[in-house]
Amino acid sequence: MKAFAELYAALDETTKTNEKVAALQRYLSAAAPEDAAWAVNFLVGRRPKRLLESRKLAEWAIAEAGVPDWIFGECFQAVGDFAETIALLLPPAAASTNLPLHYWIEQRLLPLREADDETRRAWLVSAWREMDEGQRFAWNKLLTGEFRVGVSQNLVVRAIAETGGLAPEVVAHRLMGDWLPTAEFWRQLLATEAAADISKPYPFFLAYPLEGPVEELGEIGAWQVEWKWDGIRAQLIRRAGHTFLWSRGEELITDRFPEIEAAGAALPEGTAIDGEVLPWQGGAPLPFAQMQRRIGRKALGKRILSEVPVVLMAYDLLEWEGRDIRERPLEWRRAQLESVPRDAALVLSPAVEAGSWEELRRLREESRARKVEGFMLKRRGSPYRVGRRRGDWWKWKIQPYSVDAVLIYAQPGNGRRASLFTDYTFGVWDGGKLVPFAKAYSGLSDEEIREVDAFVRRNTLERHGPVRMVKPELVFELAFEGIQRSPRHRSGIAVRFPRMARWRRDKKPEEADSIDTIRGLL
Length: 522
Description:
By secondary structure, the protein is an alpha+beta fold. It has 3 domains: 2-144, DNA ligase, ATP-dependent, N-terminal domain (DNA ligase i, domain 1), CATH 1.10.3260.10; 205-397, DNA ligase/mRNA capping enzyme (D-amino Acid Aminotransferase, Chain A, domain 1, 2-Layer Sandwich); 401-519, CATH 2.40.50.140. The chain contains 20 helices and 22 strands. The strands form 5 sheets. Strands 4, 5, 6, 7, 8, 9 and 10 form a 7-stranded mixed sheet that branches. A hairpin with an 8-residue loop joins strand 14 and strand 15. Helix 2 packs across helix 10 (153-164) and helix 3 (33-43) packs across helix 12 (183-190). It is globular and about 70 Å long.
């Protein structure tokens, strides 16, 4: 636990990639296999669900610290991070544990799920008393399910690869799918030859947004063009008589989409297809909100299956006849994909034909009418790579929707932003009043964030826990990808992926958009 807490601090204290990788490699090289497996589990974003209510955790910490409730509340307001607030308020550390990470997880953390409150409290207080401040902080992050640190999965993969002398692509593939953080898993992760897992998907290849004029890509004939679909990225795998459907988030979702599972059963053995799960009816996609109806159901009855049918829009072939074919050129994989048996739930992503970039630019203007997000541009000779790589795959999206809205609420962010007001709620006009319309937290520079933070502190009208209601003076242009009616929102409208496109310093709050203007976008 001591080494893990030191790793957490080291990763949090630097923004330099090489320093992060070096810290990871030092830890992984020295850690016991049981500890290394758990550390990787947390570092790649796998966390146990919250094991107890924040209210109880705060109550027990307040009692251990011997402070009144209001002190805890004021400290939380200042710090902005729940786990760190507890670590700072607890009595000064009198000890530092040398017990291994896997002991603390397997013997002290996970058993909390089944324990009663009296036992939970005793175990937690005992743990806090056995740890120093840095260990308490990391422990509290694990307790609350909020363990996040500034490393991407690609950096973790790189560090593991350097530790084991392996290719990063091999490590990335072994980390995919369902696995348990055990010593045996760690040994298999570093092994020269690892045992096969028939369910294991491949790491996804991700595209970069097109940054310059599309003409800079060269001749259009060198590129395969497809519509960019808005669904759930997934891999459909058929091996050893079993069908597996994996989401990009490495969640096995086969049972949620029986139509696609049935389509997978008809595939030849040793087949893996990359594609997009879409709600689909009448030869066209349904709004993504319909997909959310499917996702939110524990049981899929006949009604929801008939109202929201789905397909897998297939656009790449990764495995064929049991062979990994990702290194083959895209045009070869595409030709092979076209020969794969398909039924109504397995649809081939159509290639878009255009004789010039200008013609393609005109076709792109049809995107919203087709209920797509623009184009995917893929170099015909490209292999299927791992992660987000520049050069071979680009997404050429349509311009997002945008509205001008007024900042009305703010609250602190997380991690490095825990002491700043960075999460905002924006309102638009409705009958002379500002109604909440969307929340956003990305898009501003660090300098702009500090400026807005100072504004919030000077212009708070009301406080509701960590949330501040502010004077309605600042106007921002919000960009978003989709819009739909929603009875769950006060404005009656929900948007997808809202972010701040720019600070409209040139506009007064009364010049912001109205709800009627936004309804016109529907």
